[in-house]
## 1
Amino acid sequence: MDFSLSPEQNEIRELALKFARNEMLPRAQEYDEAGTFPREIFQKAWELGLINTCIPSAFGGSDFSSVDSVIISEALAYGCMGMNTSFMANDLALLPIVIGGSEAQKKTFLTPFTKEFRIASFCLTEPGNGSDAGGIRTQIKDGGDHWLLTGEKMWITNAGYADLFVVYGTIDPTLKHKGISALVVDPKSPGVELGKKEDKMGHRSSDTRAVRFNSVRVPKENMLGNPGDGWGIAMSTLDHSRPLVASSALGGAQRALDLSVQYSKERTQFGVPIAKHQAIQFMIAEMGMKVEAARLLIYKAAWLCDQGIRNTEIASYAKAFASDSCMQITTDAVQIYGGYGYSKEYPVEKLMRDAKLIQIYEGTSQIQRLVMARELLK
Amino acid sequence: MNIFVCVKQVPDTETKITPTGDGSFIETASIKWIMNPYDEFAVEQALLVKQLNPAATVTVLRVGSVKDTEALRTAMAMGADDAALVEAADNLDSYSIAKALKGAIQKTGKSPDLILAGKQAIDDDALQVPQILAQMLNLPSVSVIVGFELSGSALKVRREVEGGALEVYELATPCVLACNKGLNTPRYASLPGIMKAKKKPMAQYSLADVGVSESDRRVKYSQFKLPPEKPPGKKFDATDAGKQRELVSQVVGLLRTEAKII
């Protein structure tokens, strides 16, 4: 057993961290406050090869392993969890094509993302269907030489800036999971209507909107796999993306830990730095323990993915543990900062707001526990 | 056009420095090494010249321990063509380092047109190697440059002097230039660059290979120790308006006699 990263992985990590420290950290607060979409930073990250890590080299990508991609995601989230949500959304949207697309579809849809900076959105959740993704109502009707797409999607990351959507709909709601199908949709198609940008508690720089599809005509060749293959593709995508989302929580948790260590050595109360008080030490010890445990779970979930071994159970452990830990760690970081921590002039309250979303999106912490129990009890 | 860039590997700026038990050097086991930040400006300048002269080659040179080759790999990932490492202890003196760099340049068989380096290394802050190297190679040299214009073999460089004034020098290549912050914005090593760097050649020499021996050492470090801890600051209670005048003269007196800053 070897826990060390390869020299290349160390270099990738250093580059991503340097980028996070120089380009993301200094702007995170301002972008959060104004809710500015980080387009320039996103593009700069793309130019360095830090985006779209899931694209295979056959289509112009870099053949990154799942472990490589979680290393990058953790580092970028260290800079800003909110910006990283937008960055990761590209992978989340392109993964269904990598997993379920034909060679021709991969060439058509993936290659442009390696040639120029492009943004993608994954459209699964609906106003009435979040955790119960099997209850999708968006309809896909056979229009002869095209598909006709009608329905509404909710909480769609990057929607206002996307060059490509992957949309899940059903060919027949009575078929439940077996009717779900995935379409690649051009956001500029007639009938695509964007909702207003959501005013969120955290991840405020990431663009989140509702998207309505009003009888949108989609070319026949844009369906991934066959009608009814969508559920399998979506679930397999989530097995790949859960370690990635977990690593975003890990990056934020690591940042909260680093800030807490630094601040507790600077802040003096009762004549000594607060780091000398056991009450603070215990919180910091807890943070360190959870960060390390989350990292090991995430690496294992990603490594299983790379080995082609089913990782559903471990990926759920990683996602729930990392996001729950991130919530606890960022909350404690605010506690350590005291009154200053509650002020927007200090960086930790943003981390606490950002942490909350990771317990919710891409399978809530509760859904992850259902997945774990199902795996353990089967 | 043959461009050489001399880089040094230094402890990361956040490193907590601890002298070894016998005081002969610092503990290096747990240090994270980075390329000396001023050397990044030198690498970037070399790559900018190469962009305008596609036939130019950029070779990075380093003298130091072999344990980690971070600085050379980073430079090649940024776009340098090849690298050479002269294996040596990390506490070599400036004269021996300059002599080793000269030897490494000669080993390549290429005659240098431009030699770039950072103006100083942030670990020992000696500010000597580029000038000693220029002297050894009998080349002109300008240090602390913040501006660079090359046309043909004519070079115009700007150099920062105290008070923020600039000196402008015109000189011809070949020459040695020591770069300062503000000269350019160093690029990131991209991920494809990191992958490509793995395949780029890196020559490795011993000090003997490049003609340096222990007798070349001009400076020996006698002891490494941490600076004494700063005494805590003094506080003055100025809430009583009647005593403020007296307090001010007391503070001014201490600034004169104790802090010795006025």
## 2
Amino acid sequence: MSPLHIKKGSTKHSAYNLRPTFSDHEETHTIAVLVDNEAGVLARVIGLFSGRGYNIESLTVAEVDHQGHLSRITIVTRGTPQVIEQIKAQLGRIVPVHEVHDLTVEGSSVERELALLKVAGNGDKRVEALRLADIFRAHVVDSTLESFVFQITGTPDKIDAFADLMRPLGLVEVARTGVAALSRGA
Amino acid sequence: MTRQMTGAKMVVQALKDQGVDTVFGYPGGAVLPIYDEIFQQNGIKHILVRHEQGAVHAAEGYARSTGKPGVCLVTSGPGATNAVTGLTDALLDSIPIVVLTGQVPTFMIGSDAFQEADTVGITRPCTKHNWLVKDTDKLSAKIHEAFHVATSGRPGPVLIDIPKDVQFASGTYTPPAKTPTGHYQPQVKGDMETITELVEAIEKAERPVFYTGGGVINSGPGASQLLRELVDATGFPITSTLMGLGAYPASGKGWLGMLGMHGLYEANLAMHGCDLMINVGARFDDRITGRIDAFSPKSRKAHIDIDPSSINKVIRVDMPIIGDVGHVLEDILKVWKARGRKVNSEGLSKWWTQIEKWKKVDCLKFKQEGPTIRPQYALSRLEELTKSHDRYICTEVGQHQMWAAQYLGFEDPNRWMTSGGLGTMGYGTPASIGVQIAHPESLVINVAGEASWLMNMQEMGTAVQYRLPVKQFILNNERLGMVRQWQELLHGERYSHSWSEALPDFVKLAEAFGAKGIYCDNPADLDDAIMEMINYDGPVIFDCVVEKHENCFPMIPSGEPHNKMLLGEASTKDAIGKSGAVLV
């Protein structure tokens, strides 16, 4: 095959890069999808991922524009560049989907996740858990004599790191919201 | 103009305002109010099918042969689930269909009520979009939006689920013009920069080929006209997928015939050896590409498609153009003419010399000898005796379908109705009914195999009831021919369940339905029998008994590239490797 001429995509103002270079290397992408907040729209998105065999690492959804009936779905997914391009194109053709943004390639973005972690124990371990929570700027939102519930926000990596540290200190349960993400700047 | 009316009346009014003249359907408890409204009007003709799958295929046949959306009306539960195969078929072949389903009353949804099914849930992956309408005031707008979605962009099936209480309740009717069509407005104009790049490639190409598909047909007759102009003006060769037959005439000078797994030798080798491939409204389906990593290795590829997700899905292309085929072809012609109508004549004439050599192989040649009718002969005679007629051809799925694509010639778009993407056995009979409804004076033939035909034979009742003179031309080999062929080539000639020991007497079956039956097993009688079929004013079941062990060639074995084609019975042993055997 002749070498691909990489120029800009043929569709201006498009989220899709139509002349991508493909490699077999898997990448993690954060994709924001603006959808009509109507019944079944989340099922359409999830059904697309399961039906076509794509990965979902995390997914969050909530209405973000009450008057416009718009919800924002933030999906963290993993795949080769060709699969990522397909995912975006397939999302884009779902009828109630308004916009698809690949935050990983469209400039820099901020990503945050919130998690609640229940840690049970006493004695030194309890003190150590509290000390580490302070370092990670986690808040105690519930406390008994034998347990804490910590609330932590940050990138998924930071939450992973905190959970790893809590595990030997009596981590009982974790609840995570999944990633919310926005592009930086105006 | 807004008016108060019941939801049921609204359905009929909305269909009329959308220009619908025919609805294919089957009544049941959850759609009785709509059927009551249909009873009390004359503007819309309702065709009572015998099975809901038949309703959807008939609507597909209607849609493909007219370019207008097909409409179905079925009841809740089993009515809706029976429609699923038809919806999936229409989704894979991009056919605009609007299916209206009844649903149990809103207050009973979720209670496992009688004939309740989660219709929007079940049909979500097999429709372009679907809606459950819970508010009568929104019903008419949703129906108008459904027509918009089904017919714009890449066409497809849509479904509206209407609970029975919504049909009974009164609400305000909104006419189509006042309905906001929403944000769903697919791009139809292609990017001019890429179009210019393609024109430059057209000017320089030494070994170009047009590879066209169903998108040309879907774009309307104007797109076929532009395609013909471009192909003939450039003098490039053109091949087409199964779905695109008729967009360029089979008698045209650039025509190479169909490509793909059972495509013509010259078409597949042109695809393999070209230096410029111009894909117009096709989607690099696996029946076309064969082995991906050996697909047309030396070419630059342009891909015109209205659906961005088709680009780079299977084959990486160099010049992607998103837009409607008609619009893009118009722009290509405009730019190419403005730049002086240049082509590489020297390269082209060498290319055609090569193609003529491939054509000399005459990959479709066969010999009719002996007392048994060969299927290729049956279709050649059918072609000869019907090609001058105002003719529409439907097919079922299997060997007969491929032979029909190979041996019948299509001069115009919308004349060829076949299940391409999904490969639905049982498609042809109801589709032929839908076509005949739309074209009452035309000759409508369903080329079938006996096994496929039995899958929806109940629709003969529909044909007889509405006096539709559809001709069911059955190539009867008492086998699932394509399955048998694969078992021969791939599974050590172990013919597991690929034949039928208890076929009906098709002539008696025809008579039982009130149709005419014709039997023919002698090559010498075939022409007369076909003429008898054509001249009979009414539905016919033609039992054409053919050679039982005929294989369909040429064939690109699974997992092989275009230049590894099997041309005939010779050397078919071990033609398909182990890795190819897992592919379907």
